[in-house]
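Standup notes
- HV: blocked on the assembly model, inputs below
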Amino acid sequence: MRTVFSQYAWLAPLFPLAAFVVLTELNRSLKRTGAFIAIVASLASLALSLLIAFERIGTGAEDYSGGFAWLTIGSVTLSAGFEVTNLTALMLVIVSLVAFLVNLYSLGYMRDDERKSVFYAYLSLFACSMLGLVLADNLLLLYIGWELVGVCSFLLIGFWFHKPEARAAAKKAFIVTRVGDLGLLIAILLLFRYMPGHALDFVSLHNVFDSQAGVISTSITTAIALLLFLGAVGKSGQFPLHVWLPDAMEGPTPVSALIHAATMVAAGVFLVARTYDIFEASAVALDTVAYIGAFTALLAATAALKQNDIKRVLAYSTVSQLGYMMLALGSGSWTAAVFHLFTHAFFKALLFLGAGNVIHALHTQDLRQMGGLGRRMKTTAWTFGAGVLALSGVPPLAGFWSKDAVLAAAFERHPLLFAAGIVTACFTALYMARLFILAFWGRPRGDAALAARAKEAPAVMTAPLLVLAALSVAAGFVQTPFGSWLGAWLSGEAIPEQAESVPVMAASAAAGLLGLYLGWLLYGKGAPKGGGAGQTRPWPWLVRLIEREYYLNEAYGYLFVKPLQGLGRALRLFDGAVVGGAGRLAAGAVQALGRLNSRLLSGQLQTYGLAAVIAAVVLMLAIAGRRF
Amino acid sequence: MPDNVPILSFIVLIPLAGALMLLLLPKDRGRLARISAIVFTGLSLLFAVWLYADYQPAFGGAKYEERAAWLSIPLNLEAGLRDQGVVSYRLAFDYHLGVDGISLPLVLLTGAVSLMAALGSVHIRKRRKAYYALLLLLQTGMYGVFLARDAGLFFIFFELTLIPMFFLIGIWGDYGREKAANRFLVYNGLGSAVMLLAFLLLVATLGFRADETADGTILTYSGNYDVMLANLSDPNAAANAGGALSFTGGLKWSVFVLLLVAFGIKVPIFPLHAWMLRVHAEAPPPVVMIHAGVLLKMGVYGLIRFAGFLLPAQLEAAAPAIAALGVINVLYGAILACVQKEFKLVLAYSSISHMGIVLLGLASLSEIGFAGALFQSVSHGLISALLFLVVGSLQERTGTTRLTELGGLARSLPFTSGILLTAGLAALGLPGLSGFVGELLAFLGLFATMRWPTVLGVLGVLLAAVYVLRSVLAIAYGPLPARFAGLKEARFTEALPMVALTGLIVLLGVYPSLLTDLMEHGFAGLLRELQTRAGG
């Protein structure tokens, strides 16, 4: 089937880029209208993405690609181009839809911020980079987008730059993800070295790793896959590089929804899915992905249990859900991973934006200061509830189907992976129940005056919630064990009905419901007043371990930061004493010589140039005249 | 424009003419001095841009050769020689300018950075006439270095940059200016002495030529670069040279090491960098723009032009050592940049780190790596110029560039802070800005032959993120100290060069072909040599 709109896909990132340029150039004169420029641009991207996706629905649509030579040196050409496949079309819709909704939402959330147009400029640059990353037809261009979304994330985390915490969090996010980025860069160097014709485009990668086994040796393939995964680990907040993501919550909440929940952090999953042939060629790499994913899912889910900052709970939840996606990738089902990415984008964005409404109303992010908001913020509470159920995997909401697909893949791979997935599902429901109950049920625990004045957010902030809630409820039906439309569309292969996975479904649903029930028992029904301060702690050391997030930040401090500082100080002494000392010695010698010289020639440093020229002539004569 | 315009000479001599004209101005006309300096600088840049527009990589620079016999010193013509039909025996200095794919990017860099530095000198109030005259003289030296096609002329221009720099540091610098100027001169003077020795050896060997004329043979020693190249590729050159020194292995290595030391001081290569730290910290910021932006690149250019093209076998054999030096530069500079408390020193060590990447590109011995080295040189020139432009603005307003005393300036100086952040991101190699392209090309080139040095170099990119963010965020982010609340944002004259440099950095980052296309045939000769070696 021929496609019409796909050939214009390159316009999708250009709309927000234009908005970014206009907003940056005319920053001062656009206090009011800036936001509208960004919103119109994101709407244009969304419209184009939808057109592209709709015309590709149904199987058999050809992939479309186009591009140009970016840089030619000798026989090597680095090209820049875009490619539209069903996967990229789906990502285009996810990214541009969430971006549009967040742009709209920010109209309310950032209304009183004096740097609103800067905020919208950053958001637009992010949308441009993310859409570029998605559309890139080769790894180098993807890397460029990858770095640019990273820097937008950095800028937006540090948007309230006067707060020292925001500054620290922005710095941490950039540096920790850059550790992963280096993996990606080295993977690109390896591919450039070993791929026939230095090709870096995904079509060639597919051809070489899928069908021409042996062109690149297994050990190199494994190295490439692991390094690509290192990139994904950094970006998608997988253990051990996930530490930046909870801190990234210092950014404005719409940013957390867009970048740190729905889109950018999923880029790692997208990267692995896009280069899946390389991973399939290496069993070691697939296992690594699966076990890191499962471990991250479990670790982050436990950490989320004891967080008191509403956004930190959601951040750990994101880490955990990204772990699920990695688990699916490592278990051999990239379509399940992309499916979970798809549903997660909606319900997690919904949860963040809902949390944003709460924060907007109460001016606090501390769950212990909340409570009883359900009555005052009905739309927020209902939509948030839908998000909680979707994330907890309650049938038939979206999260249930996608989580089920992940667990079914894990079940086929290894019982251990499946067990980790099920336990995580239970914890997920538990911490979401806790969060929902602490925020929306019971009585207000914080500032009474503020709680009394708390009211529902304006329509511009609730409308996006309604859209996302609808999607969180319904989006899962695109792929069920009984009809796997999305998977077939993405992979281009018919997928048989998987009725045998009904036990997995039952287990997953049971785990979710059990978690919700436990949550209600612990925090709803049986919770003491005051938010659980008087609770007995069964294993105090374990609770403290979880509360302190497994002391990972401290460990990094001792393992990397302190040694680097120590090395730096040692080198500083060396540089001053040895290198500088040698310089002083040379200077002293020359000055001594100069004093001698000045007696001979009465010359000064100023005549140095002339002296050098004369010396040149004399020496040349001496050497040339050596013959006699 | 007609073809017979001596465009290269215009580029080199216009600033000199400007400097002479400034000397005629009365002392108190500082503003007029500034304006004329900007005009002359701009005029030179205009010719450089014209050269860029007119230049065709496929033909190289043959079209623009400009030469004139300058100085001819007769040597002792012995009876024995006369009997062999030799009618003249001499040592010749030629005024010989030329351009190719390696020098043209650096000429453009010189023009751009010089103009921005002249514009950015708005805070210089002391003895402006002398200041701008020296700035113009410095430009003649820099253009000359990149355009000279004669070793003697190259040397003279190289020396010509030292004198104005010495005064610019010594008179207009900070508290430690005299010591810094002194150290600058000592190191670079030693470098020049070593370079002179190397050049003399080159003249005495490769510079010898016998021309048969109707009257008889003319024997000439000269620093003519083309003669050197021709002798190098001519297997009979040694025989033709008669009794002159023959250019053999041991001598070649001596010359190579001497050149490495001479230009290594300028680059600077660890451990020859102590002088440039002081210059970064003490010289006035616009002068550092030129120092970090262009002068360091003279070292790179010298290495390529003389150590590379004239001694390809030695370059090839020394490639692992150069890669090792590059790695040391990258990591040593980066780690030290992470612990500095003075922003200017962060930038100084950052320069060391970035110049290490140039060395890595050179060590790759491949076209893509060479292109990376040259691209990185230009890119680093623009980025460090922009950073020191901002440093100048900040220092003028806050009176300090110590990281612990600054903070939160994004509130009172949003524009300047935004530029600082952009420059910082460029320095840490963000794609879309020029720094990334140079690093990428150097890494791509080196990785084919030396895997682990490349990986270590990539590690430097991570450290770059650490030291850039640490220092830039310390200045721009965080709470704003009360004493900085009322700072005035950059004026138009300050903002203009900032925007221009940022634009260039973005342009080269997005569309690097603008520069790489120029280099297309620049390295052809060297690559051919390296290939025949690999083949033979």
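- HV (later): unblocked. Chain B touches chain A through 82 residues (CB under 8 Å). Chain B has a mean pLDDT of 89.
- Next: hand off to the docking folks.
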